Structure formats: C-alpha cells, structure tokens
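Teaching soon. Got one?

===
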Amino acid sequence: MQLTVAIVGRAQGLKGEVKLDLRTDTPETRLAPGAMLETEPAEMGPVTVASRREYKGATYVRFEEYSDRTGAETLRGVKLVIESDEDEVEPDAWFPHELKGLEALDPDGYELGVVADIEHLPGHDLLVVREQDGVLTRVPFVKEIVTEVDLEDNCVVIDAPPGLFSPEELVISEETGEIKDRN
C-alpha cells in the first residue's frame, strides 16, 4: 500500500530547495539524505533526497534530480510516497482510507453521519462528517472530541461540543442568549 510521506510546496532559493507539507511522524528517517521516494504523479520521480533541513518549524529538502529553482517549481503539489506494510502502524494511528466511510456516532449511540474525508491541517487533522441532511461538518480529530475509533464496529464516537453539528440540536437561552444542549 502506498502512503504519502509529504506533499511538495513552494520552491525556496535558487538551488532547488522546496518546502514540504509533512504527512509522516518520522521525517528524519523517511527524508534522510540518500532516501529514494516514489512520486504521485509517477512521471515526476522517483526522487532522491540530497539534503534536508528544519527552519522555524518547517522542513526543506533538495532532490538530486531537481537541482535548480525552475525544476523544483515543477514539483509543487507532487506527493512523495512510499510502499508500506500496514503492520508497522503504532496504536491509536489510522490511515485515511480506514476512517472514510465509518459511521459517526455520539456517545449515546445516535448517528451523526458518516466520515466522508480527512483534512490535514498544521495543528491537527479534521474528520469531515457528512450529516444525514448532507451538511459537511469538520470535527477536530483530537481525543477530547473523537473519543473512540472502532474499526471492527465500523464507527467513530464523537463527543461534540454544542453547536458543532446541526442546529436543531441546540437551544438558545432567551434570558442569557447562550447556546445550550437541548437535553
């Protein structure tokens, strides 16, 4: 199975360095100088990491095959991928394809919708849940909100704060104007 290690961003400088949007927890291993990575689309690679550096929380690499800015700019948006065995995954880690299609339930077991997608943001990932009325709701994929992922039962349990899902679940207090749970 192919896993995305990073997505190539903008070129930096004149020597072919590019900024990466990381999708791996181990960039020092996956992106070590000399590492060869396949690309998506395949015709852009494979590429070999010539150098890697960290600067202000961002990762920058140069590839042997693209040694100038012009070449590096053609890589923007290209995915760097590896073949991986699903057995090497740590606990509490899931692949996006495992989460898509899972039923989203509240802690009482009521259906909120179905996981339609995962969005990767710098702070944390978001589960995109398609509610029964078709509305897409973005749920922060953090343990305090997504309390359980059960692949065997094909569901995720979401303990959503009031207002995250459809408004019919909310009541606005006439006295204070605060949003409250209907229960």
In short: The mean pLDDT is 81. The CA atoms of residues 16 and 67 lie 5 Å apart.
